[in-house]
Amino acid sequence: MTLLELTDVTAFYGPVQVLDAVSLSVPDGGAVGILGANGAGKTTTLRAISGTVRAGGSIVFDGKDIRGLRPDQVAGLGIAHVPEGRGTLGDLTVRENLRVGAYKRKDRKGIQSDIDYCIDLFPQLKERIKSNASALSGGEQQMLAVGRAIMSKPRLLLLDEASLGLAPSTAKTVYEAIRRLRIESGIAMVVVEQNANLAFTLVDSATVLETGRNVLTGSSAELKGMDEIRRAYLGG
Ligand SMILES: Nc1ncnc2c1ncn2[C@@H]1O[C@H](COP(=O)(O)OP(=O)(O)O)[C@@H](O)[C@H]1O
Ligand SMILES: [Mg+2]
User: Boundaries of each ABC transporter domain copy (predicted)?
Assistant: First the structure.
């Protein structure tokens, strides 16, 4: 079953159109990458899905057209956005940030067991649980941002450049945890990355954007085999 289907999506900042025609298909439980250079429209595509930019075309989630819904309505349907720059709340502790992710839930036991799960997934957060988010390293903040998203019990996770600014070993740790999350939870994912090597450890398929359009779409295996992908995105 297809969980999310974007067809010819356009997007605008004021009068300026930055997505021309973006299409994307995410199977239930699947993980799809969006690759592309700076400014290609990757972040804007995620914003179109989460309702934080004005968009045209069709965005269907779980059989329902969600284009034009408010961000809180989209979140309420089970779409969690881990934005570029992480968006953790610096004045709140790690535990409080995790609880904020669960603010719509009433199942106290479930919330606690999901906090435990986040800590199991990202053990570094355990000793930081009472620290303010602002005191965390970049890698820990990224882990917290993913953890906070998990706490809403989403069906779909939108991940924007989870590796940005992290040391390679930290980025790898974060991606391994997200891969484990994917296997254990079955949460579907849209994974925006400039680091295609990392993205391909997580996604089954991907699309490459250039100036707000898809220029290549295929399975991870197909894309990894293409010369133009290797040259532009895989350092070879
Ligand atoms: N808030 C904004 N206002 C106006 N233009 C923007 C804004 N955010 C991004 N853009 C422009 O939209 C285009 C796509 O940006 P973005 O989606 O952030 O690309 P990417 O995430 O692939 O780097 C770029 O040309 C960028 O300059
Ligand atoms: Mg971006």
Answer: 4-236
Q: Which atom of ligand 1 is nearest to the CA of 209?
A: 22
Contacts of 53 (CB under 8 A, 6+ apart): 11, 12, 13, 44, 47
| Residue located nearest, by CA, to atom 1 of ligand 1 | 13
Helix (H) or strand (E) holding 172: helix 168-185
Is residue 234's pLDDT more than 80?
no
At the top level of CATH, the class of 2-87+153-233 is alpha beta
Q: Worst-scoring range by mean pLDDT, 19-23, 34-38, 147-151, 223-227?
A: 223-227
Q: Where are the domains of the chain?
A: 2-87+153-233
Q: Taking the CB of residue 24, how many other CB atoms lie within 10 A of it?
A: 23
Nearest protein Cα to ligand 1, atom 24? 39
Which protein residue's CA is at the shortest distance from atom 27 of ligand 1? 39
Nearest CA-CA partner of 157 in 29, 11, 14: 29
Distance 132 CA to ligand 1 centre (A): 30
